[in-house]
From TrEMBL:
Its EC number is 6.4.1.2. This is Acetyl-CoA carboxylase biotin carboxylase subunit. Pfam families: Biotin_carb_C, Biotin_carb_N, Biotin_lipoyl, CPSase_L_D2. PROSITE patterns: ATP_GRASP, BC, BIOTIN, BIOTINYL_LIPOYL, CPSASE_2. Keywords: ATP-binding, Biotin, Ligase, Magnesium, Nucleotide-binding. Gene3D superfamilies: 2.40.50.100, 3.40.50.20, ATP-grasp fold, A domain (3.30.1490.20), ATP-grasp fold, B domain (3.30.470.20). GO terms for molecular function: acetyl-CoA carboxylase activity; ATP binding. Residues 121-328 form the ATP-grasp domain. It comes from the Archaea. Residues 465-486, 505-536 are annotated as: Disordered. It comes from Natribaculum luteum. InterPro entries: ATP-grasp, ATP_grasp_subdomain_1, BC-like_N, Biotin_BS, Biotin_carboxylase_complex, Biotin_carboxylation_dom, Biotin_COase_C, Biotin_lipoyl. It is an enzyme of class 6 (ligase). Residues 1-458 form the Biotin carboxylation domain.
């Protein structure tokens, strides 16, 4: 087994991996960006290293910085968690080629074969696994998309090769959207997964989303650990996951599980992974879907997934520990027949979002109260404590509530109890939305599809739930004017983090920020479009278009002198791993552009001025 593992991730998944390491008596190393210097995963780890500024591309996605941190820490393994570099074959190969460090995951070659979706489709097709009509080679030109549409019809899904969970996926409903959606999908793939390649699929309009958890070792053993139903989604983002699926008959469940095993075995895959399928729902069905129901391979996620917790609860198998053991060369010590499904489990993603406001992410705030639930069958995966400031530079998910019951009915009842107990004040969360879903007829009857939330649910019910159960969500920002008496410092020596605590009574405020060699406090970095003042230097009296949230400028769609109409896209802003089009509210001439591509902005920063 390894001596020390660096976890190349943040938040709750980093702590989840570290806990597995602790139980195996393995040391833990965290990495963090400037935005995460006080985050929970940094507190939990034995050691922590700064890998760069808040922007993910300059920190968590920086291959060299992550590997250099592992070398400094003398770690002998790197676990990527999920997201960031978890499915980056190039990074996996770099780790594999680094002497003394083991990659905890599938090999770079296997990751490329299954993680890049077009290659995965080819492998599955050869293994006699049903696939949705689509391309098996990347597409680069709008003409290719149009030709596909002429042959298979619209709508078409354009998907990033390295994507997943709806990231880097765009739906084209007709020919007029082809060029814009293709560029957007490529841009998201590059920004989030360091891979701009995209492919096409026929877009199934109302399917169920069923996925199979697998583990495979270097000795040729492949096991599946049952399925999860992830059909409750919003804009292709999973919200509640459960297992086993209440919509599948045992015969169909077995067919899907064996198809997953067959496909993974054909790819010479090792470690943990998830094979995702789309299952066609049968409207008005009486009972579960039978063995003749249509199902299609969607993709393989070559990593641990957010919802792995569901499978752990119903099988009793610690998947993260299995990952570590397999990476260390150990053989899987159970047969497929030994995998037993016990009871029912659900996972609730606790996102810092206001579901009643189109699931708008919080732009800041402090966890004034943080009191998670407990009791039999209740599990919390988080990296939070009361008083923490909300970090808004990355994903909006702050925790996961996982609930087990002897059957689905008990699981729902216990989940309602746990959600009622969950007390969070200071930021908005989607806990009221979860409570609503557990009383929703479609969800309770398990007849919902992946389109239910986007197309069928009455949004007024979400507003009512938020009003009834939303509680104190704060004002969305921290109080920076409050006098602090805390004397805690973080010191970095050669990139390694040390905590220093001082107690001082009645002393003057200690300056914060960078200090140069002479002891003089350095100036703050310039705001977007400005030069040291709190606001950008804006000329003219026209409409000032501000950033609605903190994020990174992915693209500037206009130039000074351009004439724009109301609704035209001015800037594309990335926030919470999602693209947001910033549009003109009225027509006019672009007289000033205060930002540039790749620049980080805060909420309220000026982006564009129109006359």
């Amino acid at each position: 087994m390894f001596r020390k593992v660096l976890v190349a991730n943040r938040g709750e998944i980093a702590v989840r991996v570290m806990r597995a390491c602790e139980e195996l008596n393995v040391g833990t190393v965290a990495i963090y960006s400037e935005a995460d210097k006080d985050s929970g995963h940094v507190r939990y780890a034995d050691e922590a290293y700064n890998v760069g500024p808040a922007r993910a591309a300059d920190s968590y996605l920086d291959h060299d910085a992550v590997i250099e941190a592992a070398k400094k820490a003398d770690a002998d393994a790197i676990h990527p968690g999920y997201g960031f570099l978890a499915e980056n074959a190039e990074f996996a190969r770099k780790v594999e080629q680094t002497e003394g460090i083991t990659w905890v995951g599938p090999s770079g070659d296997a990751m490329e074969a299954l993680g890049e979706k077009t290659k995965a489709r080819s492998i599955m097709q050869e293994a006699d696994v049903p696939i949705v009509p689509g391309t098996t080679e990347p597409v680069t030109d709008p003409e290719q998309v149009e030709e596909f549409g002429e042959k298979h019809g619209y709508p078409i899904a354009i998907k990033a090769e390295g994507g997943g969970g709806g990231r880097g996926m765009k739906v084209v409903w007709d020919e007029s959207e082809v060029e814009d959606q293709l560029e957007s999908a490529k841009r998201e793939g590059e920004a989030y997964f360091d891979n701009a390649s995209v492919y096409l699929e026929r877009y199934l309009e109302k399917p169920r989303h069923i996925e199979v958890q697998i583990v495979a070792d270097e000795h040729g053993n492949v096991r599946h650990l049952g399925e999860r139903d992830c059909s409750l989604q919003r804009r292709h983002q999973k919200v509640i996951e459960e297992g086993p699926s209440a919509a599948l008959s045992d015969e169909l469940r077995e067919k899907i599980g064996e198809a997953a095993r067959r496909g993974v075995a054909a790819a010479d895959y090792t470690n943990a992974g998830t094979v995702e399928f789309l299952v066609e729902e049968e409207p008005g069905r009486d009972g579960p879907l039978g063995p003749d129901a249509n199902f299609y391979f969607l993709e393989v996620n070559t990593r641990i997934q957010v919802e792995h917790t569901v499978t752990e609860e119903i099988t009793g198998i610690d998947i993260v520990k299995r990952q570590l053991k397999i990476a260390a060369g150990e053989e899987i010590d159970f047969d497929q027949e030994d995998v037993e499904i016990d009871g029912h489990a659900m996972e609730f993603r606790i996102n810092a979002e206001n579901a009643a406001d189109d699931f708008a992410p919080a732009t800041g705030g402090t966890l004034e109260t943080y009191d998670p639930p407990g009791g039999i069958g209740v599990r919390m995966d988080d990296a939070l404590r009361q008083g923490d400031e909300l970090v808004t530079d990355y994903d909006s998910m702050i925790a996961k509530l996982v609930v087990w019951g002897e059957d689905r009915d008990e699981c729902i009842a216990r989940s309602l109890r746990a959600l009622r107990e969950y007390d969070i004040e200071g930021i908005p969360t989607i806990i009221p939305f979860h409570r609503l879903m557990l009383t929703d007829e479609e969800f309770v009857e398990s007849t919902h599809t992946t389109k239910y939330l986007d197309e069928e649910l009455d949004e007024s019910r979400i507003e009512e739930a938020q009003e009834q159960w939303g509680g104190d969500t704060g004002d969305g920002a921290s109080d920076e004017d409050e006098e602090s008496v805390e004397r805690e410092f973080t010191v970095e020596v050669n990139g390694k983090r040390f905590e220093v605590e001082l107690e001082e009574h009645g002393g003057p405020a200690i300056p914060v920020g960078d200090v140069d060699a002479s002891g003089t406090q350095a100036s703050r970095p310039e705001p977007a479009g400005g030069s040291g003042s709190d606001e950008a230097d804006i000329a003219g009296d026209g409409e000032v278009v501000d950033a609605e949230m903190q994020g990174t400028i992915l693209d500037v769609e206009v130039e000074e002198g351009d004439e724009v109409a109301a609704g035209d896209v001015l800037v594309v802003l990335e926030a919470m791993k999602m693209e947001n089009d910033i549009v003109a509210s009225q027509g006019g001439e672009v007289t000033q552009i205060a930002v540039e591509e790749g620049e980080s902005v805060d909420m309220g920063d000026t982006l564009v001025v129109l006359e």
